[in-house]
Amino acid sequence: MSGFDRDWLALREPVDGRARDADLLAAAIQSLESVSAPTILDIGCGTGSTFRALSPKLQRPARFRLFDDDQRLLDEANRLHGEAIEIVRGDLNEIEALPLADVGLVTASALFDLCSEQFIRRFVAHISQRGASLYAALNYDGRMRWSKPHPLDETVVANFNAHQLSDKGFGLSLGPRAWATLADCLGESGYTVTTAESPWAMTVSDRDLQRLFLDGMVRAVYEYGQLDESELRDWADFRRKMVDRDGSLCQVGHQDILAIR
Question: Cα 3–7–11 angle (5° rounding)?
């Protein structure tokens, strides 16, 4: 899995925070109440955004173990939180080596839409054997809409979603279908599964994030190569003008999943 830019992660964190389903987050925290000293393993942790989302809401102390393969992001997490967290560097593909000792809840944010069905099934089987619950938030579900529509919106999104099915480091990604596959696998493994929509709503105050998101979309659609370049350029120019001139709003669909043992 390739690393993510710290600036991108910082820009998206406030939008992620607004998007997380509050009831599902509260239920994830409630699931830890019967554990005297819970340990939470956050996989693909980045700089610690999930830790920052959960830790202020906990009613009792918990140990947070943050896991990622990007040393730059782990160094930033350590700089921000120091002794409040335990940091473990490792390859998420080595599922059997995940540091699950004493872990009651595994968390992840914006991760599983990057993963293949084989990876998801291996992952669910492993955490199920260890008896850990899962809170997986902000899984992209393939839906986008803008307050200022363009005739090519649906075509561009369809091409972007097709590009999401490429290998992101965990085999051929399921992209927008990943959240449903994850929920089904968890249910088949005996978990009580709850899902909730958690759409991004990028507003005028999120212009910088909208620009970066738009640039990433354009690159992906260009790489996919099924849309006429001049049409893609016209669409991108229109979208950039809407962001720069009018602060066009953009909503991106996501799904949160809570699976309790």
Answer: 115
